[in-house]
Amino acid sequence: MRNKKKLYPFTAIVGQKTMKKALILNVINPNLGGVLIKGEKGTAKSTAVRAFEELLPEKDEIEGCIFGCDPYDVSSMCDICLERYEKGEEFSKKKGKMKVIDLPVSATEDRVVGTLDIEHAIKKGEKKFEPGILAMANRNILYVDEVNLLSESIVNAILEVSQSGINHVEREGISFTHDCSFVLIGTMNPEEGGLRPQLLDRFGLYVDVVGSEDLNERVKIIKRRIEYENDPLLFTNKWKEEDEKIWSKIEKARELILDVKVSEDAMKLASEISLRANCSGHRAEIVIVEAAKAIAVLDGRKNITIEDLKEASELALPHRMRDIPPNVSESEEEKEDENNEEDRQDQGSSNEELENQETSDETPLEEEQEEEFQDDNDDTEYEDDEDDNREDTDDMNNSQSSDEESIDKIGDIFKVKDLDIKPLDRRKRKGSGRRSIIKTGELQGRYVRYTFPKGKPRDIAFGATLRAAALYQSSRDKNGLALAIREYDLREKVREKRTGSTILFVVDASGSMGAQKRMEAVKGAIMSLLTDAYQKRDSVGMVAFRKEEAELILGITRSVDLAHKKLEELPTGGKTPLSLGIYRGYKVLKAAIKKDPDIIPVMVLVTDGRGNTSFQGKDPHKEALEVAEKIASEGIQNIVIDTEEDYIKLHLAEEIAMCMNANYYRLEDLRADEIFTFVKNSINFRKASYFS
């Protein structure tokens, strides 16, 4: 039997200090709930997690218990150990090392949660529980590489167990419950898609890793890797002393963390940070406090400082912020107070200026306000100090103009957020791509679970079939066979695979979009979405509406180059036939569904919602709402991207999104920008008076 190859030493990994520290903090304080490590390929994500196993501490276990129960905690014992305890039996205790338990992406549900022990059932005709991966993960680390590729059923199982701390199994006549508490660690490449919000929130901490841009560091990585490949044992021994230093610090910190006291001021500050970061729920502030405790004891202290809370928030908040909140700083609050005071002081002088204005030859204020809302034919000129009013009026004029046209260039292209596109039904589909996980009736894809066949099974789930038949072998006539299987024992595989979507962009190209280079930004956002669609192997199309028509300018295609050309040439100007645009988009997608029923249709409506012309002779806005309501239940996933940027917002696009049952985004929400910079720069920490 060959010896297992030595793992790359944890301390030999060059750089990535934040990632390594996040792992250490979770072992010091398991209450953190784990860490999600997200980053590009080749940044030592998996290497770091697996190498970390060598630094994990020891724990007390009940000898012979398959779940590794804690002999000193009766409340967390499994059914078997609890029964022994109630009978007064004495447990044999042993020291066991924490482990990193891998959960493969290809794992099936029964392998994860546990199932019937086939061997025992065949030999004795009795039901016995066979533990799964979650049982092995109890009081250990559960590691999922490429966690964003997990099947829906496995994600649901992990969510349920991580929330309750209990794995309750009811399957194949088995009813079994055992404690299941683990540190969840996931690694992922964002190019392969995102995570469900529910699973994302279960990770206590979040780390975004990137490759080093320092030339010397990159050279050092190469040297160490070559040295390791030449002689893994020698290289590992070379770093053993450094690993032991980290191990010793972890052990001391685990003992010290029980003595850390959290002041009420620290709790208030953690809560304030979470509020400023616009986090949903209350898990954020709890994780901040728990992380700050671990940071303090790792540094050998029993007290939490502001710096501890700041560092903890940078790890606990990025994946929990719903939107980037306004950057309100203490200095801005002070300026606000000063401005209020100045306003009160200047009120008298302002009144004098208004009185002088009324008696002067200039246009009175009331008349100016009326002139702002005059028709396009009114050529009233405003004074130079009234630019803002002129820009507002120009916006309205552009939205009503039917003659002027312009062609805006494509704005900045950026990485977009995951728009959470997925099928609205559960039926099986064919197809290929990288966007959404679907159930497939083909003999391809990952086997995730089994089901009872409807008719003759095409794809037999042999494991589940054997388990169903195992209990009855002692009473069946086998006729010389090792195993007797009846038709009602048969189970069929349920498979999942990824597929692309058919995304139709319905773009507002009316005059209102040309104001303040708005169309330039819109084109940049659409091109960013098209680039993302190409990476996910989606098909795309485009409808543009302006003047009195809605035109299909790009049929359903996979050519992003063609989409880029059409977008670049798209003119802007004229009225806004919003209802016609939505209706035309709906018709295009319905035709695509008729041609290929297996597609996942998505309409992306890009507009400010200010329709001003109707194709049925009704009120333009009401007509748009009626059309939106009509397509809401047509099996098409709708997304509305609001381009409204005016100071006074009417929220018309948001109203349309509600009628369409659409996911709603503002234009600025699409950017998947680096979040850490925001966390560091925008979260404002109160002065040390909190702790005085």
Would you mind describing this structure in some detail?
The chain is an alpha/beta fold and 692 residues long. The protein contains 24 helices and 20 strands. The strands form 6 sheets. The chain has a 6-stranded mixed sheet with strand order 17-16-15-18-19-20, sandwiched between helices. Helix 13 packs across helix 14 and helix 22 packs parallel to helix 23. The longest helix is centred in the middle third of the chain and has 30 residues. The C terminus is likely disordered.
Quick summary of this structure?
This protein is α/β, with parallel strands linked by helices.
Strand element count: 20
Query: Which ranges are low-confidence, i.e. pLDDT below 50, for 5 or more consecutive residues?
Result: 324-402, 674-692
Radius of gyration over C-alpha positions, nearest whole angstrom: 31 Å
Strand content: 15-25%
Give the helices and strands, then pairings:
Layout: H1 17-28, E1 35-39, H2 45-51, E2 58-62, H3 79-86, E3 93-97, E4 100-102, H4 109-113, E5 115-116, H5 118-124, E6 129-130, H6 133-137, E7 141-145, H7 152-164, E8 166-171, E9 174-179, E10 183-188, H8 197-202, E11 205-209, H9 215-230, H10 232-238, H11 240-256, H12 264-276, H13 283-298, H14 306-316, H15 330-359, H16 365-371, H17 387-400, E12 436-440, E13 446-451, H18 462-470, E14 492-499, E15 502-508, H19 518-535, E16 539-546, E17 549-557, H20 560-569, H21 578-595, E18 601-607, H22 620-631, E19 637-642, H23 652-659, E20 663-666, H24 675-682
Parallel strand pairs: 1-10, 1-11, 4-7, 7-10, 15-16, 15-18, 18-19, 19-20
Antiparallel strand pairs: 2-3, 5-6, 8-9, 12-14, 13-14, 16-17
